Amino acid sequence: MKVVDIRNVFEKRRIQLFYVDDDFIYYAEEKLQGELSNLYILEYNRDTRRERLVTNYTLEDSSFVQHIFAFEETILLVLENGSSSIWVVELDRRSGILREDFTNVKLLMQIILSLQLHLMKKAKVSLRSIRL
After folding, report:
1. pLDDT above 70: residue 42
2. pTM of the model
3. How far apart are CA 102 and CA 1, in angstroms?
4. Which of 74, 86, 110, 130 has the fewest other C-beta atoms within 10 Å?
């Protein structure tokens, strides 16, 4: 096991780690600039101890909550506001370029549909138990 002290890199910053391996750490950092919030996806090279900007987005609606998932070659960014709006972006992890094949987006949508079905079944069971 390789242990590296990275506290000084991430200290006093609003970040979310979402992928760690022997060579790299991927994380998101949100910064307010005026009334807008900017989301930066960054890579930290554990050998060189340098940060690299993968990509960044301006978040115009502060009601959206971010969920970030890392896969072998891609980063999946999901922004949702808890109601009927969702924004899904799949990026190449190394280049930050938007992926057009949406392989992991399709997988995510299948997971969401499965969860919705599960919750609907669970809710019906709960309603029946309340009626009894």
Report:
1. yes
2. 0.68
3. 34
4. 130
